[in-house]
Protein backbone atom coordinates (compact mmCIF):
# COMPACT_ATOMS: atom_id res chain seq x y z
CA UNK A 1 0.00 0.00 0.00
CA UNK A 2 2.78 2.42 0.92
CA UNK A 3 4.81 1.60 -2.12
CA UNK A 4 1.83 1.75 -4.49
CA UNK A 5 0.70 5.09 -3.08
CA UNK A 6 4.21 6.54 -3.31
CA UNK A 7 4.68 5.41 -6.91
CA UNK A 8 1.27 6.71 -7.92
CA UNK A 9 1.82 10.02 -6.15
CA UNK A 10 5.17 10.53 -7.89
CA UNK A 11 3.62 9.69 -11.28
CA UNK A 12 0.65 12.01 -10.78
CA UNK A 13 2.76 14.83 -9.38
CA UNK A 14 5.47 14.72 -12.05
CA UNK A 15 2.97 14.68 -14.91
CA UNK A 16 0.94 17.42 -13.21
CA UNK A 17 4.01 19.59 -12.57
CA UNK A 18 5.13 19.27 -16.19
CA UNK A 19 1.69 20.36 -17.40
CA UNK A 20 1.53 23.17 -14.83
CA UNK A 21 4.99 24.34 -15.97
CA UNK A 22 4.03 24.58 -19.64
CA UNK A 23 0.48 25.88 -19.21
CA UNK A 24 1.46 28.14 -16.31
CA UNK A 25 4.27 29.79 -18.29
CA UNK A 26 1.97 30.46 -21.21
CA UNK A 27 -0.70 32.07 -19.02
CA UNK A 28 1.87 33.94 -16.92
CA UNK A 29 3.36 35.47 -20.05
CA UNK A 30 -0.04 36.42 -21.45
CA UNK A 31 -1.12 37.99 -18.16
CA UNK A 32 2.19 39.74 -17.52
CA UNK A 33 3.15 41.04 -20.94
CA UNK A 34 0.09 41.37 -23.12
CA UNK A 35 -3.18 43.26 -23.09
CA UNK A 36 -6.40 41.63 -24.22
CA UNK A 37 -10.08 41.73 -23.44
CA UNK A 38 -11.17 39.55 -20.56
CA UNK A 39 -7.69 39.45 -19.07
CA UNK A 40 -8.89 40.11 -15.54
CA UNK A 41 -11.64 37.54 -15.96
CA UNK A 42 -9.11 34.93 -17.06
CA UNK A 43 -6.89 35.81 -14.11
CA UNK A 44 -9.83 35.42 -11.73
CA UNK A 45 -10.88 32.09 -13.24
CA UNK A 46 -7.34 30.71 -12.97
CA UNK A 47 -6.99 31.93 -9.38
CA UNK A 48 -10.35 30.59 -8.23
CA UNK A 49 -9.14 27.07 -7.27
CA UNK A 50 -6.79 28.73 -4.80
CA UNK A 51 -9.70 29.99 -2.71
CA UNK A 52 -12.38 27.42 -3.49
CA UNK A 53 -12.62 24.46 -1.12
CA UNK A 54 -10.93 21.57 -2.96
CA UNK A 55 -14.09 19.49 -2.76
CA UNK A 56 -15.95 22.24 -4.61
CA UNK A 57 -13.21 22.34 -7.25
CA UNK A 58 -13.54 18.56 -7.46
CA UNK A 59 -17.30 18.86 -7.82
CA UNK A 60 -16.89 21.21 -10.80
CA UNK A 61 -14.39 18.81 -12.32
CA UNK A 62 -17.02 16.07 -12.13
CA UNK A 63 -19.58 18.42 -13.69
CA UNK A 64 -17.11 19.12 -16.50
CA UNK A 65 -15.24 15.87 -16.98
CA UNK A 66 -17.36 13.15 -15.38
CA UNK A 67 -18.93 10.46 -17.53
CA UNK A 68 -22.03 12.62 -17.90
CA UNK A 69 -20.14 15.88 -17.66
CA UNK A 70 -20.30 18.82 -20.07
CA UNK A 71 -17.08 17.75 -21.79
CA UNK A 72 -16.72 14.30 -20.28
CA UNK A 73 -19.91 13.08 -21.97
CA UNK A 74 -18.42 13.56 -25.41
CA UNK A 75 -15.09 12.07 -24.41
CA UNK A 76 -16.94 9.02 -23.11
CA UNK A 77 -19.16 8.75 -26.21
CA UNK A 78 -16.18 8.83 -28.55
CA UNK A 79 -13.59 6.85 -26.60
CA UNK A 80 -15.55 4.90 -24.01
CA UNK A 81 -13.16 6.35 -21.45
CA UNK A 82 -13.61 8.98 -18.77
CA UNK A 83 -11.45 10.92 -16.36
CA UNK A 84 -13.56 9.67 -13.46
CA UNK A 85 -11.79 7.14 -11.23
CA UNK A 86 -8.52 7.15 -13.18
CA UNK A 87 -5.03 8.38 -12.33
CA UNK A 88 -5.41 10.87 -15.19
CA UNK A 89 -8.33 12.31 -13.25
CA UNK A 90 -5.99 12.73 -10.28
CA UNK A 91 -3.57 14.56 -12.58
CA UNK A 92 -6.31 16.96 -13.70
CA UNK A 93 -7.22 17.66 -10.07
CA UNK A 94 -3.56 18.27 -9.18
CA UNK A 95 -3.09 20.58 -12.17
CA UNK A 96 -6.16 22.67 -11.47
CA UNK A 97 -5.40 23.25 -7.79
CA UNK A 98 -1.67 23.92 -8.23
CA UNK A 99 -1.79 26.07 -11.38
CA UNK A 100 -2.74 29.28 -9.51
CA UNK A 101 0.38 29.01 -7.30
CA UNK A 102 2.61 28.64 -10.36
CA UNK A 103 0.92 31.55 -12.11
CA UNK A 104 1.08 33.88 -9.10
CA UNK A 105 4.82 33.37 -8.67
CA UNK A 106 5.87 33.28 -12.31
CA UNK A 107 3.59 36.11 -13.45
CA UNK A 108 5.09 38.41 -10.83
CA UNK A 109 8.65 37.55 -11.82
CA UNK A 110 7.93 37.83 -15.56
CA UNK A 111 6.31 41.21 -14.92
CA UNK A 112 9.41 42.34 -13.06
CA UNK A 113 11.66 41.77 -16.08
CA UNK A 114 12.25 45.30 -17.35
CA UNK A 115 10.65 45.90 -20.76
CA UNK A 116 13.87 47.48 -21.98
CA UNK A 117 15.50 44.05 -22.25
CA UNK A 118 12.71 42.71 -24.40
CA UNK A 119 12.70 45.86 -26.53
CA UNK A 120 16.47 45.56 -26.96
CA UNK A 121 15.97 41.99 -28.12
CA UNK A 122 13.32 43.05 -30.66
CA UNK A 123 15.58 45.77 -32.06
CA UNK A 124 18.25 43.09 -32.47
CA UNK A 125 15.91 41.25 -34.82
CA UNK A 126 14.41 38.65 -32.51
CA UNK A 127 10.74 37.71 -32.37
CA UNK A 128 8.54 37.28 -29.32
CA UNK A 129 9.15 33.58 -28.82
CA UNK A 130 12.93 33.72 -29.07
CA UNK A 131 12.97 36.80 -26.84
CA UNK A 132 10.90 34.95 -24.26
CA UNK A 133 13.20 31.92 -24.30
CA UNK A 134 16.52 33.75 -24.29
CA UNK A 135 15.79 36.92 -22.33
CA UNK A 136 12.56 36.89 -20.32
CA UNK A 137 12.74 33.28 -19.13
CA UNK A 138 16.33 33.35 -17.83
CA UNK A 139 15.75 36.70 -16.11
CA UNK A 140 12.54 35.48 -14.47
CA UNK A 141 13.82 32.00 -13.61
CA UNK A 142 13.87 32.43 -9.85
CA UNK A 143 10.17 33.16 -9.63
CA UNK A 144 9.41 30.46 -12.15
CA UNK A 145 11.37 27.83 -10.20
CA UNK A 146 9.72 28.99 -6.99
CA UNK A 147 6.31 28.69 -8.67
CA UNK A 148 7.12 25.19 -9.91
CA UNK A 149 8.18 24.02 -6.46
CA UNK A 150 5.09 25.49 -4.83
CA UNK A 151 2.95 23.81 -7.48
CA UNK A 152 4.80 20.52 -6.95
CA UNK A 153 4.21 20.68 -3.21
CA UNK A 154 0.56 21.61 -3.61
CA UNK A 155 0.03 18.79 -6.12
CA UNK A 156 1.75 16.33 -3.77
CA UNK A 157 -0.64 17.20 -0.95
CA UNK A 158 -3.79 17.35 -3.08
CA UNK A 159 -6.65 15.49 -1.38
CA UNK A 160 -10.16 16.89 -1.79
CA UNK A 161 -10.47 17.43 -5.51
CA UNK A 162 -8.63 14.17 -6.20
CA UNK A 163 -11.03 12.23 -4.01
CA UNK A 164 -13.99 13.76 -5.86
CA UNK A 165 -12.92 13.06 -9.44
CA UNK A 166 -10.59 10.08 -9.08
CA UNK A 167 -11.90 8.39 -6.00
CA UNK A 168 -9.80 6.41 -3.57
CA UNK A 169 -8.92 3.14 -5.27
CA UNK A 170 -5.78 1.50 -3.79
CA UNK A 171 -3.16 0.91 -6.46
CA UNK A 172 -5.15 2.88 -9.02
CA UNK A 173 -6.05 6.34 -7.74
CA UNK A 174 -5.00 6.22 -4.10
CA UNK A 175 -2.24 8.81 -3.79
CA UNK A 176 -0.23 9.35 -0.58
CA UNK A 177 -2.60 11.83 1.12
CA UNK A 178 -5.54 9.51 0.48
CA UNK A 179 -3.55 6.53 1.73
CA UNK A 180 -2.75 8.40 4.94
CA UNK A 181 -6.42 9.19 5.45
CA UNK A 182 -7.37 5.56 4.93
CA UNK A 183 -4.58 4.27 7.17
CA UNK A 184 -5.72 6.51 10.00
CA UNK A 185 -9.41 5.75 9.42
CA UNK A 186 -8.75 2.02 9.59
CA UNK A 187 -6.57 2.36 12.70
CA UNK A 188 -3.35 1.48 10.86
CA UNK A 189 -1.15 3.90 12.75
CA UNK A 190 2.21 2.48 11.74
CA UNK A 191 1.40 2.86 8.06
CA UNK A 192 0.04 6.38 8.53
CA UNK A 193 3.23 7.31 10.34
CA UNK A 194 5.52 6.06 7.56
CA UNK A 195 3.46 7.72 4.84
CA UNK A 196 3.41 11.01 6.74
CA UNK A 197 7.18 10.87 7.23
CA UNK A 198 7.77 10.18 3.52
CA UNK A 199 5.55 13.13 2.53
CA UNK A 200 7.30 15.36 5.04
CA UNK A 201 10.72 14.33 3.71
CA UNK A 202 9.65 15.03 0.11
CA UNK A 203 8.33 18.45 1.11
CA UNK A 204 11.53 19.36 2.97
CA UNK A 205 13.60 18.22 -0.02
CA UNK A 206 11.53 20.48 -2.28
CA UNK A 207 12.05 23.50 -0.06
CA UNK A 208 15.77 22.75 0.27
CA UNK A 209 16.12 22.42 -3.51
CA UNK A 210 14.42 25.74 -4.22
CA UNK A 211 16.54 27.56 -1.70
CA UNK A 212 19.69 26.01 -3.11
CA UNK A 213 18.75 26.80 -6.68
CA UNK A 214 17.84 30.39 -6.01
CA UNK A 215 21.13 30.86 -4.17
CA UNK A 216 23.29 29.51 -7.02
CA UNK A 217 21.29 31.57 -9.49
CA UNK A 218 21.87 34.69 -7.49
CA UNK A 219 25.60 34.23 -8.01
CA UNK A 220 25.65 32.86 -11.51
CA UNK B 1 17.67 58.74 -46.23
CA UNK B 2 15.16 58.69 -43.41
CA UNK B 3 11.87 60.47 -44.06
CA UNK B 4 9.59 61.23 -41.14
CA UNK B 5 6.22 62.91 -41.24
CA UNK B 6 4.19 61.97 -38.20
CA UNK B 7 1.71 63.14 -35.59
CA UNK B 8 1.15 61.71 -32.19
CA UNK B 9 -0.88 62.84 -29.21
CA UNK B 10 -0.43 61.54 -25.72
CA UNK B 11 -3.37 61.64 -23.36
CA UNK B 12 -1.71 59.45 -20.83
CA UNK B 13 -1.56 61.02 -17.37
CA UNK B 14 2.10 60.26 -16.96
CA UNK B 15 3.13 61.89 -20.21
CA UNK B 16 0.73 64.79 -19.56
CA UNK B 17 -1.05 65.97 -22.63
CA UNK B 18 1.63 66.16 -25.25
CA UNK B 19 1.34 66.49 -28.93
CA UNK B 20 4.06 65.80 -31.41
CA UNK B 21 4.19 66.93 -35.00
CA UNK B 22 7.31 66.21 -36.97
CA UNK B 23 8.37 66.41 -40.54
CA UNK B 24 12.00 65.98 -41.44
CA UNK B 25 14.39 64.24 -43.77
CA UNK B 26 17.61 62.90 -42.35
CA UNK B 27 20.55 61.98 -44.55
CA UNK B 28 23.21 59.41 -43.87
CA UNK B 29 26.27 60.12 -41.76
CA UNK B 30 26.16 61.57 -38.29
CA UNK B 31 23.10 63.51 -37.17
CA UNK B 32 22.72 65.13 -33.77
CA UNK B 33 19.22 65.45 -32.39
CA UNK B 34 19.15 68.01 -29.64
CA UNK B 35 16.73 70.01 -27.52
CA UNK B 36 15.66 70.33 -23.88
CA UNK B 37 14.32 67.35 -21.92
CA UNK B 38 10.72 66.67 -22.73
CA UNK B 39 11.04 67.94 -26.29
CA UNK B 40 10.16 64.50 -27.67
CA UNK B 41 13.61 63.35 -28.79
CA UNK B 42 13.37 59.90 -27.28
CA UNK B 43 9.80 59.56 -28.52
CA UNK B 44 11.01 60.27 -32.05
CA UNK B 45 13.66 57.53 -31.78
CA UNK B 46 11.06 55.14 -30.43
CA UNK B 47 8.77 55.88 -33.35
CA UNK B 48 11.56 55.24 -35.84
CA UNK B 49 12.38 51.91 -34.20
CA UNK B 50 8.73 50.88 -33.87
CA UNK B 51 8.52 50.92 -30.08
CA UNK B 52 5.96 53.75 -30.18
CA UNK B 53 3.32 53.93 -32.87
CA UNK B 54 2.46 57.34 -34.34
CA UNK B 55 -1.23 58.26 -34.68
CA UNK B 56 -0.76 59.02 -38.32
CA UNK B 57 1.83 59.83 -40.91
CA UNK B 58 4.67 58.03 -42.56
CA UNK B 59 8.16 56.84 -41.72
CA UNK B 60 10.42 55.58 -44.45
CA UNK B 61 14.06 54.54 -44.46
CA UNK B 62 15.91 54.07 -47.73
CA UNK B 63 12.62 53.54 -49.61
CA UNK B 64 11.54 50.89 -47.14
CA UNK B 65 8.26 51.98 -45.54
CA UNK B 66 8.27 51.39 -41.77
CA UNK B 67 5.00 53.08 -41.03
CA UNK B 68 2.19 54.46 -43.16
CA UNK B 69 -1.11 55.14 -41.45
CA UNK B 70 -3.18 55.43 -44.63
CA UNK B 71 -2.02 52.05 -45.90
CA UNK B 72 -2.04 50.56 -42.40
CA UNK B 73 1.59 49.58 -42.66
CA UNK B 74 3.36 49.12 -39.34
CA UNK B 75 6.48 46.99 -39.69
CA UNK B 76 7.31 45.16 -36.42
CA UNK B 77 10.38 46.30 -34.48
CA UNK B 78 12.37 43.18 -35.25
CA UNK B 79 12.02 43.64 -39.01
CA UNK B 80 13.11 47.27 -39.13
CA UNK B 81 16.82 46.60 -38.66
CA UNK B 82 17.23 49.60 -36.44
CA UNK B 83 20.09 49.52 -33.94
CA UNK B 84 19.08 51.12 -30.67
CA UNK B 85 21.42 52.17 -27.87
CA UNK B 86 19.19 52.75 -24.87
CA UNK B 87 19.82 55.41 -22.27
CA UNK B 88 20.37 52.73 -19.62
CA UNK B 89 22.08 50.43 -22.20
CA UNK B 90 19.71 47.51 -21.49
CA UNK B 91 22.55 45.00 -21.69
CA UNK B 92 21.25 41.52 -20.99
CA UNK B 93 22.33 41.04 -17.36
CA UNK B 94 22.64 37.26 -17.69
CA UNK B 95 25.04 37.35 -20.63
CA UNK B 96 28.75 38.18 -20.97
CA UNK B 97 29.92 41.05 -23.16
CA UNK B 98 30.58 38.63 -26.03
CA UNK B 99 27.18 36.94 -25.65
CA UNK B 100 25.48 40.32 -25.61
CA UNK B 101 27.19 41.36 -28.84
CA UNK B 102 26.64 37.92 -30.45
CA UNK B 103 22.93 38.07 -29.72
CA UNK B 104 22.01 40.26 -32.67
CA UNK B 105 24.42 38.78 -35.23
CA UNK B 106 22.24 37.00 -37.74
CA UNK B 107 24.54 34.99 -39.98
CA UNK B 108 27.46 32.59 -39.66
CA UNK B 109 28.37 29.62 -37.53
CA UNK B 110 28.64 30.16 -33.80
CA UNK B 111 32.44 30.43 -34.12
CA UNK B 112 32.11 33.03 -36.87
CA UNK B 113 29.59 35.02 -34.87
CA UNK B 114 31.88 34.91 -31.87
CA UNK B 115 34.81 36.17 -33.96
CA UNK B 116 32.66 38.98 -35.26
CA UNK B 117 31.56 39.89 -31.75
CA UNK B 118 35.19 40.02 -30.61
CA UNK B 119 36.01 42.19 -33.60
CA UNK B 120 33.27 44.62 -32.59
CA UNK B 121 34.56 44.68 -29.01
CA UNK B 122 38.03 45.40 -30.41
CA UNK B 123 36.64 48.34 -32.38
CA UNK B 124 35.81 49.91 -29.02
CA UNK B 125 39.03 48.69 -27.37
CA UNK B 126 37.29 46.43 -24.87
CA UNK B 127 38.44 42.94 -25.96
CA UNK B 128 39.71 42.42 -22.41
CA UNK B 129 36.21 42.47 -20.90
CA UNK B 130 34.79 39.90 -23.36
CA UNK B 131 34.02 37.40 -20.61
CA UNK B 132 32.63 39.88 -18.09
CA UNK B 133 29.02 40.19 -17.07
CA UNK B 134 27.41 43.66 -17.28
CA UNK B 135 27.43 44.08 -13.49
CA UNK B 136 31.22 43.66 -13.52
CA UNK B 137 31.70 46.51 -15.98
CA UNK B 138 32.14 50.25 -15.48
CA UNK B 139 29.59 52.63 -16.97
CA UNK B 140 31.90 53.43 -19.88
CA UNK B 141 32.47 49.75 -20.59
CA UNK B 142 28.75 48.99 -20.54
CA UNK B 143 28.21 51.86 -22.91
CA UNK B 144 30.79 50.49 -25.35
CA UNK B 145 29.29 46.99 -25.21
CA UNK B 146 25.85 48.47 -25.92
CA UNK B 147 27.24 50.28 -28.96
CA UNK B 148 29.10 47.19 -30.15
CA UNK B 149 25.92 45.12 -29.75
CA UNK B 150 23.80 47.57 -31.73
CA UNK B 151 26.32 47.86 -34.55
CA UNK B 152 27.11 44.12 -34.74
CA UNK B 153 23.58 43.41 -35.93
CA UNK B 154 24.42 45.49 -39.05
CA UNK B 155 21.47 47.83 -38.73
CA UNK B 156 20.32 50.13 -41.52
CA UNK B 157 20.50 52.99 -39.02
CA UNK B 158 21.68 53.35 -35.41
CA UNK B 159 19.74 55.37 -32.85
CA UNK B 160 21.66 56.49 -29.79
CA UNK B 161 19.54 57.83 -26.95
CA UNK B 162 21.73 60.03 -24.74
CA UNK B 163 24.31 57.25 -24.58
CA UNK B 164 26.79 59.26 -22.54
CA UNK B 165 24.50 60.72 -19.91
CA UNK B 166 25.55 58.14 -17.32
CA UNK B 167 29.33 58.26 -17.75
CA UNK B 168 31.71 60.72 -16.10
CA UNK B 169 33.03 63.79 -17.92
CA UNK B 170 36.50 62.36 -18.45
CA UNK B 171 35.26 59.17 -20.08
CA UNK B 172 32.74 61.16 -22.07
CA UNK B 173 35.33 62.95 -24.20
CA UNK B 174 37.04 59.69 -25.10
CA UNK B 175 33.76 57.97 -25.87
CA UNK B 176 32.61 60.77 -28.14
CA UNK B 177 35.71 60.17 -30.28
CA UNK B 178 34.98 56.47 -30.35
CA UNK B 179 31.35 56.98 -31.31
CA UNK B 180 32.34 59.26 -34.20
CA UNK B 181 35.04 56.85 -35.19
CA UNK B 182 32.62 53.91 -35.16
CA UNK B 183 30.20 55.81 -37.38
CA UNK B 184 32.93 56.56 -39.90
CA UNK B 185 34.27 53.02 -39.91
CA UNK B 186 30.94 51.24 -40.21
CA UNK B 187 29.27 53.77 -42.51
CA UNK B 188 25.99 53.20 -40.67
CA UNK B 189 23.94 56.41 -40.31
CA UNK B 190 23.74 57.53 -36.66
CA UNK B 191 21.13 59.65 -34.98
CA UNK B 192 22.61 60.81 -31.72
CA UNK B 193 20.30 62.29 -29.13
CA UNK B 194 21.67 64.66 -26.52
CA UNK B 195 20.45 67.62 -24.50
CA UNK B 196 24.04 68.58 -23.75
CA UNK B 197 24.93 71.69 -25.76
CA UNK B 198 28.68 71.10 -25.66
CA UNK B 199 28.24 67.57 -27.00
CA UNK B 200 25.88 68.76 -29.69
CA UNK B 201 28.17 71.56 -30.78
CA UNK B 202 31.09 69.21 -31.02
CA UNK B 203 29.34 66.49 -33.00
CA UNK B 204 27.04 68.61 -35.09
CA UNK B 205 27.54 68.28 -38.76
CA UNK B 206 23.89 67.56 -39.33
CA UNK B 207 21.81 68.93 -36.55
CA UNK B 208 18.14 68.83 -35.67
CA UNK B 209 16.76 70.82 -32.78
CA UNK B 210 13.44 69.96 -31.17
CA UNK B 211 11.30 71.85 -28.70
CA UNK B 212 7.92 70.88 -27.23
CA UNK B 213 7.17 68.23 -29.82
CA UNK B 214 8.19 70.30 -32.82
CA UNK B 215 11.31 70.57 -34.91
CA UNK B 216 12.53 74.14 -34.62
CA UNK B 217 15.66 73.82 -36.64
CA UNK B 218 16.92 71.25 -39.12
CA UNK B 219 20.31 71.56 -40.65
CA UNK B 220 20.69 68.37 -42.61
CA UNK B 221 22.58 67.38 -45.71
CA UNK B 222 20.28 65.38 -47.94
CA UNK B 223 22.19 62.56 -49.58
Q: What is the rounded distance between the termini of chain A? A: 43 Å
Proportion of residues in extended strands of chain A: under 5%
Radius of gyration of chain A equals 19 Å
The largest β sheet of chain B comes out as: 6 strands, mixed
Beta-strand proportion of chain B: 25-35%
Q: Which CATH architecture of chain A is right?
A: Orthogonal Bundle
Compute the number of structural domains of chain A.
1
Overall average pLDDT of chain A: 92
CATH class of chain A: Mainly Alpha
The percentage helix of chain B is: 25-40%
Span of the ends, CA to CA of chain B: 7 Å
Major interchain interface with per-chain residue totals: A-B, 16 and 25 residues
What percent of the residues of chain A sit in helical stretches (DSSP H or I)? over 70%
Instruction: Kindly give the count of domains of chain B.
Output: 1
Q: Which secondary-structure class do the elements of chain A indicate?
A: mainly alpha
Task: Give me the CATH fold name of chain A.
Answer: MetI-like fold
User: What is the top-level CATH class of chain B?
Assistant: Alpha Beta
Short summary:
Chain A is mainly α and 220 residues long. Chain A is 80% helix and 0% strand.
What is the strand and helix layout of this fold?
The complex is a heterodimer of chains A (220) and B (223).
Chain A: H1 2-33, H2 39-51, H3 54-65, H4 72-79, H5 87-111, H6 115-123, H7 128-139, H8 141-157, H9 160-166, H10 176-185, H11 189-219
Helix pairs in contact in A: 1-5, 1-8, 2-5, 3-5, 3-9, 5-8, 5-9, 6-7, 8-11, 10-11
Chain B: E1 2-10, E2 18-26, E3 30-34, H1 41-49, E4 56-61, E5 64-68, E6 73-74, E7 82-85, H2 97-103, H3 110-123, H4 139-152, E8 157-161, H5 169-186, E9 190-194, H6 197-203, E10 206-211, E11 214-219
What does this structure look like?
The complex is a heterodimer of chains A (220) and B (223). With 220 residues, chain A is an all-alpha fold. Helices cover 80% and strands 0% of the residues of chain A. Chain A has helices spanning 2-33, 39-51, 54-65, 72-79, 87-111, 115-123, 128-139, 141-157, 160-166, 176-185, 189-219. The mean pLDDT of chain A is 92. Chain B has one domain (29-51, 79-219): 3-Layer(aba) Sandwich (Rossmann fold). In chain B, strand 1 (2-10) and strand 2 form a beta hairpin. The longest helix of chain B has 18 residues, at 169-186. The mean pLDDT of chain B is 87. The chains are: A mainly alpha (220), B alpha/beta (223). Chain A binds chain B through residues 114, 116-117, 119-127, 134-135, 138-139, and chain B through 49-51, 76-84, 86, 88, 90-94, 103-104, 106, 149-150, 153.
Amino acid sequence: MIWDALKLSLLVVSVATAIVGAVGLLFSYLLAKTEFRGKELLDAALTLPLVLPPTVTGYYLIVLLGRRGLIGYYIYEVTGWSFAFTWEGAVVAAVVVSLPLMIKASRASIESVGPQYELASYTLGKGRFETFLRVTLPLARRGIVAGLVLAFARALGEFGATLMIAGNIPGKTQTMPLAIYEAVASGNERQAQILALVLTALSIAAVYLTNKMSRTQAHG
Amino acid sequence: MLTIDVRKQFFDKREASFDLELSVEIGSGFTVLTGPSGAGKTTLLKMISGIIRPDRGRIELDRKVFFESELRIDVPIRERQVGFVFQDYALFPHMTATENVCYGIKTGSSAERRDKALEMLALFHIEHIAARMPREMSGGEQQRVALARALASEPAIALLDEPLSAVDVETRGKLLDEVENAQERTGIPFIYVTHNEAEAARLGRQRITMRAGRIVEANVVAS
